[in-house]
Amino acid sequence: MKNEQLRHGQRGITLIEACVTLAVVATVATSAAPSLRGMFDTRRLDGTASQLGHDLQFARGTAVARNQRVRFSVHGTATGSCYVIHTGSADQCECGNADGPAVCSGDAQEIKTIRLASADRVTLQSNVSSILFDPQHGTSTPTGTLHVVGADGREVHQIVNVMGRVRACSPQGRVPGYLAC
């Protein structure tokens, strides 16, 4: 009989083994969660800053290609922030409602609108409300610095100089992949 018990052996796991395994998995998961959130926040900040830089260059290129003045206007909204690339004067286009296109008046035309919701954990701040790109030379008036700010306070600056060129940097080099400002 004893020999027969040895051949069959024990099957399954005990309750104690299951509890210990669950405790180890829970400990690893809770220690990894903050670093995962930080990684997602960094990717979101970098992605938003990259898109902003590309859109500033797009606005400049569109002005030259259309041979028409093009504006890059920044607006704060109740649910976050947004920017509109458009023709016309600075006050002729607003972000409009949360899902639709920008609302433009007069002869102004929306070219592109990007919204940054509060839930995205990034905000857009700027020292200017609108930048005008000249079609003849691609220059910008005024110059400006746009700040993409992450939930943890880290920032990426997109700086537009008088020649209309855009460069990106991060204060004290806090965001990997960006030079220090």
Can you walk through the features of this model?
The protein has helices at 2-8, 15-66; strands at 70-77, 80-86, 93-94, 103-104, 110-117, 122-126, 130-133, 140-141, 144-150, 155-160, 166-169. The protein has one domain: 3-Layer(bab) Sandwich (minor pseudopilin epsh fold). Helices cover 33% and strands 30% of the residues. The strands form 3 sheets. A 5-stranded antiparallel beta sheet has the order 5-2-1-7-8, covered by helices on one side. The protein is built from 2 helices and 11 strands. The chain starts with a helix and ends in a 12-residue tail after the last strand. By secondary structure, it is an alpha+beta fold. A hairpin with a 2-residue loop joins strand 1 and strand 2 (80-86).
Spatial shape: elongated
In terms of DSSP E residues, the strand content is 25-35%
Distance between the termini: 80 Å
Mean pLDDT: 88
Q: What is the total domain count?
A: 1
Strand order of the largest sheet: 5-2-1-7-8
Radius of gyration: 26 Å
CATH superfamily: minor pseudopilin epsh domain
CATH architectural type: 3-Layer(bab) Sandwich
Strand-and-helix sequence, N→C?
HHEEEEEEEEEEE
Layout of helices and strands:
Layout: H1 2-8, H2 15-66, E1 70-77, E2 80-86, E3 93-94, E4 103-104, E5 110-117, E6 122-126, E7 130-133, E8 140-141, E9 144-150, E10 155-160, E11 166-169
Antiparallel strand pairs: 1-2, 1-7, 2-5, 3-4, 6-9, 7-8, 9-10, 10-11
Short description:
By secondary structure, the chain is of the alpha+beta class.
